[in-house]
Each structure stands twice: as structure tokens, then as C-alpha cells.
Write a structure and sequence with these properties.
By secondary structure, this protein is mainly alpha-helical. It is 36% helix and 0% strand. It is built from two helices and no strands. The N and C termini lie far apart (52 Å).
């Protein structure tokens, strides 16, 4: 079994392109099981910094 940083909060931020739950990009999520151990380790090391810099996307409201 391959460990995953997924926390079951699967929402992508429109600005950053990162999952608000785990901090991965959609490409990283899709390729996760095909990545080498080294690639997964590299991404995992980056996740906390990514999430610290991520902000929820602004809500867009229609006027008019």
C-alpha cells in the first residue's frame, strides 16, 4: 500500500492550483501511485510550506 497525504478534503484552490486538504497539485494527485518513492518524498516535504502559503480562493459574486 502506498501512503498518501490525502486528508479527504479534496478541494482545489483556483488561484494556487493546490488541494486545500493536502497541498498537492491535480497532476501530483493523478500521478501519485506512479511516482517513485523519491518523488513522493520530495512532494511530501514541500506540502506544509505549500499549505502555509495557500489561501482560499475568493468568492466571486455576480452583480447586476
Amino acid at each position: 500500500m502506498i501512503e498518501s497525504p490525502c486528508v479527504k478534503i479534496c478541494t482545489l484552490d483556483a488561484r494556487s492550483g493546490l488541494c486545500l486538504g493536502c497541498g498537492r497539485t491535480i497532476d501530483e494527485i493523478a500521478r501519485w501511485t506512479a511516482m517513485s518513492v523519491a518523488e513522493r518524498a520530495r512532494v511530501t516535504r514541500e506540502l506544509s510550506a505549500r499549505l502555509a502559503g495557500a489561501t482560499p480562493a475568493a468568492t466571486v459574486t455576480a452583480t447586476g
